[in-house]
Amino acid sequence: MTLLDRPGVPGSAAARRGERTTAPRQDGVVLTAGVGALQLEAGGALPEVELSYETWGTLDADASNAVLIQHALTGDTHVAQGHGAEPGWWDALVGPGKPVDTEKYFVVAANMLGGCYGSTGPSSLDPEGVPWGSRFPFVTIRDSVRAEARLADRLGVRRWHAVLGGSMGGARALEWAAMYPDRVRHCVVVAIGGYSTAEQIALAQAQLLAIRQDPAYRGGDYYGGPEPVAGLGLARRIAHISYRSEAELNFRFGRRGQGAENPLEAPGGAAERGRYQVESYLDHQADKLVGRFDANSYVALTEALMSHDVGRGRGGMQRALAGARAEFFLASVNSDRLYFPEQSDELARALPGEVPVHSIDAKIGHDGFLTEIGQLGAELRRRVFTL
Amino acid sequence: MTLLDRPGVPGSAAARRGERTTAPRQDGVVLTAGVGALQLEAGGALPEVELSYETWGTLDADASNAVLIQHALTGDTHVAQGHGAEPGWWDALVGPGKPVDTEKYFVVAANMLGGCYGSTGPSSLDPEGVPWGSRFPFVTIRDSVRAEARLADRLGVRRWHAVLGGSMGGARALEWAAMYPDRVRHCVVVAIGGYSTAEQIALAQAQLLAIRQDPAYRGGDYYGGPEPVAGLGLARRIAHISYRSEAELNFRFGRRGQGAENPLEAPGGAAERGRYQVESYLDHQADKLVGRFDANSYVALTEALMSHDVGRGRGGMQRALAGARAEFFLASVNSDRLYFPEQSDELARALPGEVPVHSIDAKIGHDGFLTEIGQLGAELRRRVFTL
Prior knowledge:
The structure is a homodimer. In chain A, 30% of the residues lie in helices and 16% in strands.
């Protein structure tokens, strides 16, 4: 398989431009694998799909120690530090001696279909060598999971010891359990319910419009020209507010002005006033994302997230999950106001058997699934990662 | 005074184009009064300010029965039905025989400074006859209240029996009590706290960017050309989500598609998929606002709302209100997730004496201050409107 893999820069979009090589696999270094053509749930097809991924640790002889970790909307494959210096986004959970111990488990993290961290997405080249752009088809959570199942085949993983993820990563973990009941032993779903709600769809629509209304977006065909940075930045601001709690924002920023800027002084009109700290903070969040993420991928993955509904076409959530054979581990963040804890509770009730919902205690809001994931470590060791 | 008043169409922006007349005042018909030049809090000035307003009922001989009702962000002066057929936005509260009985009280509702329903705003003509546009200065809640105080002088109202408002109208009511302690007997503040919080500022910033990033906005100088309808529509969507509760949106719309539209079918790409019902609903909300509101006024009033902070420059909220002589009546909506009930509670604690916070029981969210205002009727009759 190494003949088809490509090493790259850890956690970097440059990975997809890496050269094919036969170098040995290293922990936390991006590789890419072809998984073939994919017919898509909403119609259309992709002729040639590649998924980028990173791995940590070694698959054991009977391939029973493999763990799939699924990233969130703008996340990447670099879940743990590994070979390079760059920290991972779930370092508190994954690594040597950590609850998901990479000295015992073979950990895989794949970039989602449609993403911009190495997997086939709108910025990838089509068979004619032109970026997909506006022609990139509609991909759903289920499409991505089907591609990931082929990657698992390629990696020699018939059955995952565990599939886990938070936020949109949790949606993919849940779909794994529904689509491939024999291939998931433990399923860990953090900070998301069984479907995207009307409110989550509404907030997503606003983000999509922010990008699509940016004239630089050009319907998605902006490659080679100016990028829709204003639109993507606005989308990020809308999203980021929803990722944080009201208390968090108010405690950190209140009504203070940014540095020496005075929000209440603007003889020339409000457009010239100083910024509030919270505005400057959101400007910074927007700038950071714009520097690392492709607007078309933001659109594609947001559309996929809107499609999240494990019960769709399966007679509802309970029926969809009746055949799931995984042991489920659910968790929610108690201050989450985007994926309310009640939605995790509702999912738990739809699952076979008694499934408790663990609570992450955080003031920060939804992003507690990233910053406070360590709180689940002991329970995960006890129930899922017992090696 | 009638020599300076202008009748107009009830609740219509056309009011500001009305001719001067000596016609007698009629209930619920827009009039306009000049209130002179205004030096502004954030610097700058307006040379000649007009406020549009409507009235209901008759001012009694000792001018003791006057009530000022303050509208919210995109509200207008048409609080009650009156002479015309058009319903008012607080008809459940204001009218003949209603808690604010227009057969007993003289009710006034003024369009806020910066608005587009007849008061001086960005779409008004400057002294040279050119729309203000980008040159319209930064106006705050306090600036508007100072202009309203001059309107009260013009109307012969030395002291209001009550000043009341919800949302941004509540902010102006509160400022009245702080700025003119001798001129407010009862102050009714619904569904807003003593200041705009970091989160409210953050949500406002996103709305401002949605408009300002629309190329048709042209910095505010779009009059005579295409209007920034896409930007204003997006701002409205962002705002409207915050006005409604998650439960309301999910109960009404869930994940259903709009009519025959299928959100999961789009062989040509996600941009071509059918809409979810909640998307169609927000499209409709956006279209409605775009058809009745000026983008520059939306910006000006949003900026004013961000400035809301009764304690600013006055040693904090408690000190600012220590000298207030009004009897306060506070209320919050129990499902409000934009102006949380806790913020009304915090304001109550900052007020002199014991001030209870009445609770409007509504599933809808913030907009309950409009749809469920009737719930406060009995308490308002008991405590404020006792005639």
